[in-house]
Amino acid sequence: MKGRPIGVFDSGLGGLAVARKVLDEMPEEDIVYFADFANLPYGPRPREEVKTFVLKVIDFFLGEDVKSILIACNTASAAAAEVAQQEAREIPVIGMINPAVKAALKSAQVKKVGVVGTMGTINSKVYEDVFQQLSPSTEVFGNACPELLRLAEQAEIDDKEKIRRLAKSCFGPLEEKAVDVLILGCTDFTCVAQDMRALLSPHIRMVDPAGEVVNTVNTVLQERDWRQTGRVIGAMTFYASGEAPVGAKDFARRVFDIYIDEFRLVSLK
Q: Of 27, 30, 32, 58, which sits most exposed with the smallest number of CB within 10 A?
């Protein structure tokens, strides 16, 4: 198992935020990244449809002999993390939701939490459910931000004025609720996180769960003695179900310092 790669999956490019953290924290590991461009975006799609997509990607990863799978997409995590783990059997599947909640709760006396994400993630109420399990007294407020996410999905992040306007309208209603923490409930937010932080009230802690996700998989692999050792750096391979958005490779390089030679096209069955 040690020599097998880690699978990282998103409907688009936002999951590269998680891949970047894997590269930083576990550079010895090989990574297989899959982008489901053919079905992008997941956010407005019905839950059952997203679940179907996720299970197909899980089957793809199992065919690639991965040793763990990171669902680097909140919408996919909300729709199918549990069933994906059942499909993968002994291969650990780690979604975004639980690590995000645990990261938010690291601060003492968190009373109100805001979550920004896709319509699918917010409407699922999955964050409310997990907080209810781990911290019942915490109030959770969600806000869907499809317009801001659309910029990231299409790698259109150069119009700073537009980004800031959309960002303010995105988290403004949550600031009015006097939240203590703001969870970035979609990996696509990572590429505009600095713009959001600059506009967000200083006392509100912003949580990007990508780091917590990688801490989780690192712990799981160490517990199983599946961590790669004995070399300096691993390899990264990119697959996709459809054509990448225009400028995707440049976007990956500028935002995540990840260089993509090509996306190998595969057909999900």
A: 27
* 243 and 261, same domain (yes or no): yes
231 vs 56, which has greater pLDDT?
56
Would you please indicate which residues are annotated as catalytic (active-site) residues?
73, 186
According to the model, what pLDDT value does residue 232 have? 74
What tens digit of pLDDT does each residue of 112-127 get?
999 999 899 999 999 9
Structure tokens at 214: 């990688």
Average pLDDT of 162-181? Answer: 90
In terms of DSSP bridges, do strands 236-240 and 264-265 run parallel, antiparallel, or are they unpaired?
parallel
Q: Which residue has the tokens 């299970």?
A: 55
Long-range contacts of 225-228 (CB under 8 A, 24+ apart): 225/2, 226/1, 226/2, 226/4, 226/67, 226/68, 227/2, 227/26, 227/28, 227/29, 228/2, 228/3, 228/26, 228/28, 228/29, 228/30
In a domain, 1, yes or no: no
The reply to whether 85 falls in a domain is yes
Q: Is residue 255 part of a domain?
A: yes
| Same-domain pairing of 225 and 127 | no
- Order across the sheet with 93-94: list the strands: 93-94, 68-71, 6-10, 31-35, 236-240, 264-265
pLDDT for the residue numbered 35: 96
Q: Verify cis geometry, omega within 30 degrees of 0, for the bond prior to 41.
A: yes
Residues 76 and 13 in one domain: yes
pTM: 0.91
Provide the domain count of the chain.
Answer: 2
